Each structure stands twice: as C-alpha cells, then as structure tokens.
Amino acid sequence: MNIYWEMTQACALACRHCRAEAVPMAHPLELTFDEGVSLLQQITEFGPPLPQLILTGGDPLARADLYPLIDEAVKLGIGVSITPAATSALTRDVLVRLKEHKVEGLGLSLDAPTAELHDSIRGIPGTFHRTMQAIAWAQELEMPLQVNTLVAAETAPSIPQVYELLKPYAVSRWSLFFLISVGRGKVLQPLAPEDAERLMGWIHDTSRIAPFIVATTEAPSFRRVALERLRAEGMTGEQIKRSGVARSFGIRDGHGIMFVSNTGDICPAGFLPLAVGNVRKDRVADTYRNHPVFQSLHDPTTFEGRCGVCEYHALCGGSRARAFSATGNYLASDPLCTYEPGHHHG
Ligand code: SF4
Question: What's the whole-model pTM score?
Fold first, then answer.
C-alpha cells in the first residue's frame, strides 16, 4: 500500500498543470511537525507490512522539518520515498542527504524530451535541465528512481522520444500519468479515449523490452489492454501472473492508495480530492478500512455504469479519480476507457 502525504503546498515552481495548485507560501493550517509525527504513528496502525510513504507537495524540500520527519518515519519502520520539485534547491548534496536519511526512492517529473517542450508545459524555464541533472545524480548515487511523465494531448506524440531519452539511465520505474483535470491540470487537454487506447498498446509493447518497469498512473484500463494482448498471444493465467504484468492489478484510487493533504484531509488519492476525514480527528487506518467511501472503493461490485458490469473490474476498476472529475460520482465509469463489457474475445 502507498500513502501519499502532501507535506506542503509551498513550491517555488508554479507548474501550469499542478494538481496541488502549489503556491510559494505554506498554508496557514498546514500540519505542524507534531501533527506530522502523529500521522506517522497512525500509519503504523495499518500493521505489517507497513505502507510505503511517498512525501509529495508542493515541494517537500520546502518543509524546514523534512529531515526530522523522515527520521521519525524510518524509526517507525516506514519506507519513505520523495518527489521533490525541480527547483534550484534540488542539488546533488540534497540527494546525498536524502540517501543518508534512508530515503528509499526518488520520483521526478519529466513531461517531454526537449527543454523547449517540457519547460513550456511546466510553464517554467530551466526545469528540464534541472530534472535531467537530478536524474544523472540519482544514477550516480544509485538511488532508485521513478520518472513520472504526463500524458496529455500536448505530450502524447513525444512519449516515444521520452522513452528513448530515459533508456540509457538507471531508471527503476517509468510511470505514465494520464492527465486528470484536477487543480491547474484543467489548462491541458486529456487524450481522446481512442488515442489513449492506442498509446496503451504502445506502452504494453514497450514495457516488454524496456530496461525498467513501465507503468501507468490513473489509467488502470492499461491492465485490460495488457491482459487482452497477452491472452491473444496464447499466454495462460498462470504465465501472466508470473510475467510481472499482474503486479499492479487490483490497486486503484482508495484501494492500495491513500492521500493526506497538507492540511490533513484524508482522500482516496491525490487526484480524487474527496475529503472523507482529517488526521487531526480521524485515524488513517480506521478511515481506510471503515469509511463508506473507502469501503465502496475496495469493492468493485459497487461501481456503476460500464465499470460496474465489466469482467475486468477486479483487476482494473477504472480510474475513480477520472470518474469523479468527469461526473462528480466516484463510482461512475472511467470515461477514458473504450471497452464495452461483454465483448471479450477470449
Ligand atoms: S470498463 Fe471500467 S473496469 Fe472495465 S476495463 Fe474499462 S475502465 Fe476498466
């Protein structure tokens, strides 16, 4: 299980499509150090194996108490990853320090294969160069690195070039995030469903030859595409399970994923901004297990529309965040998926 903690909304960047609508200043009601420690203690209530904690923002490097909080988490036995913003604060020394404090993974965003396109999508000059620099440092320091790439109408044509750019680096995981119009993301255009389906086919083919894991975020119907292709090749269920494709099957917003905002709101995912509690008064493990919204997210038979009757819903279930952003109903169908349930061809 992954818990994303948006430590702060503060960030020196102001990317055009920021989910968090980050601003230079921290929110006045941001969780304090003590409240942060109490959140970390709450996470241990999940019991073993403890969830992985992903520190996000805003820019987690903008928190003055970042390292003491990392130390608290590590002391409690919680694995920590971090997704810093590509600002001038992201230096090689910072990566060294994160490694010394036992941060297990680094996540960086790279949306396009050239400075011109990446910086214009981010709206900030210099971020491409800084990101590539940090990728090289992570490789040099042998820090496990996840690169996140935005998939939108503007970026989709250059995704294969991003792959070519990343190929020589020691990336452990490349995750393609299919845009959801949340926060400032509303300024970019999502991919049309047919184009998304075509790109998922390319992602699947690439994932089989890539030197790193290739995955999608907020596009669980990729698992259906992958499964259909493997079956068409004659692979059995058992072979598919062993192939590693099935690794992420069944994980979706609110199920294997939980998000805590900078002010403590508990949401099923960062892109599903439906606050069902707050860590100042509720417990994260209890909310995850017992809140009716989380309970329905754990159970695909409660889903509606195509995703409700789909034979793939246990492994896919659609993006609950996209359903929510498109319809206001987090149980509705994922509008990115073209699949008509019942048309399964074996
Ligand atoms: S209809 Fe829904 S559950 Fe079925 S493959 Fe598409 S997104 Fe997934």
Answer: 0.95
Cβ 316 under 6 angstroms from ligand 1: yes
On whether residue 154 sits in a domain, the answer given is yes
Token readout for 217 is 């975020």
CATH number (domain holding residue 170): 3.20.20.70
Which residue carries 């990336």 as its tokens? Answer: 171
**What's the gap between Cα 66 and its chain centre?**
21
Core vs surface per residue 57-68: b (16+ CB within 10 A) or e? bbbbbbbeebee
Residue 332 lies in a domain: no
Taken in order 210, 211, 216, 222, is the CA torsion positive or negative?
positive
Query: Which residue is listed with tokens 């596009």?
Result: 219
- Pairing assessment for the beta strands 257-260 and 2-6 based on DSSP bridges: parallel
Element at 149 (helix H, strand E): strand 145-151
Domain count of the fold of the chain: 1
**Ligand 1, from 307, 324, 338, 345: best to mutate by most atoms within 8 Å of Cβ?**
307
CA of 338 to the centre of ligand 1 (A): 8
Q: Is residue 309 in some structural domain? A: no
Ligand 1 within 6 A of CB of 306? yes
- Tens of pLDDT, residues 234-290: 988 888 877 777 777 889 999 999 999 999 999 999 999 999 999 999 999 999 999
Which pLDDT tens digit goes with each residue over 88-118? 999 999 999 999 999 999 999 999 999 999 9
Q: What is the mean pLDDT of the chain?
A: 93
In a domain, 310, yes or no: no
